[in-house]
Amino acid sequence: MRRQCVAITGIRGYVGSAVAVAAREAGHDVIALSRFEDHRYPWRSYDLAKPIAPGTLDHVDVVVHCAWDLALTREADVHSVNVRGTSSLVAAASAVGARVCLISSMSAYAGTRQVYGRAKLTCEREVVGARGDAIRLGLVYGGRAGGLIGSLSRLMSLPLLPTVGASSHQFTVHVDDMALGVIRIIEREKRSGEPVGLAHPAPVRFDHLLRQLAAVRGKHPMLVPVPWQPVYGGMRLLERVGLTLPLRADSLLGLVQPATSVPQHEAWATMGVPLRSFDEGIKDLAP
After folding, report:
1. Which of 44, 34, 270, 15 is nearest to 145 (CA)?
2. Radius of gyration of the chain (CA)
3. What is the mean pLDDT of residues 70-75?
């Protein structure tokens, strides 16, 4: 294995921090690309919404792009910051001979109505077209869970839990399997030429997922199914008037209209990446 210099955007987040730890443990040099200095790693100033300063990617072999501004809800703003920022990062990486590994999402599938999913699809095309990699993560869980799974976990103390899309499903990936998978992708020489899904291939019903999250905390809330359409419409209305919600309307859409399968999941076995099932992996979830 060749030692590489791995720069990571979004390194302070749930996914980015796990990838950084795995990269360092694998013997790679890690650089933090973020707005604020990170004392755990050598740091270079980077802001997704701003031009990239000369020298930011000097001596970098690969950029793992985890950063994404989830506070934006309008599609035009998402493209202005996240999509345009990704495009600028790809151009800067190409200029110094580095490649980009985009952390994408299982929400990025053909036909998705989700703003987030459509924006990720656009970024995937940009990255893969520049001979980079795009990894579609499933719902990441495990450890000190953050992201969407962290938000859902915090609701488990409620005695009654209104539930939308209870019979829908999600594809999941344990945080340790996710981090190892990203490292295996950046270490390999051959590019896949298309996005690869990093998630266990068995879909997990959303109501089962919620019950398991509750059980590891010793909670047993009553799940009360509610129709998602009026909830989604109300959330969109509140967002339009400037209110910040615990869960974005666009995220709700992703929960009720998920992808149907995990692309290229068979490749992980050949790379030595175990993909544990949700019922197996949830045992490691910290309360």
Report:
1. 15
2. 19
3. 90
Class for domain 5-284, per CATH?
alpha beta
Neighbouring C-beta atoms of residue 82, cutoff 10 Å: 23
User: In the block, which residue shows the tokens 């996710």?
Assistant: 178
| pTM of the entire predicted model | 0.93
Q: Could you state, in order of their start, the residue ranges of all structural domains in the chain?
A: 5-284
- Distance, in Å, from the CA atom of 86 to the CA atom of 129, rounded to the nearest integer, reads 13
Token match 């893969």: residue? 128
Which residue from 154, 280, 279 is spatially nearest to 219, judged by alpha carbons? 154
Q: What is the distance between the alpha carbons of residues 160 and 108, in angstroms, rounded to a whole number?
A: 32
**Mean pLDDT, residues 136-147 taken together:** 82
**Stronger pLDDT, 160 or 86, i.e. the higher one:** 86
The two three-digit tokens of residue 28, written as one number: 């790679």
182 strand-pairing partners? none
Listed in order, strand segments (DSSP E) in the chain are: 5-9, 29-34, 43-45, 62-65, 99-105, 133-137, 139-141, 160-163, 169-170, 172-174, 196-198, 204-205, 222-225
What tokens appear for 283 in the block?
Answer: 């045992």
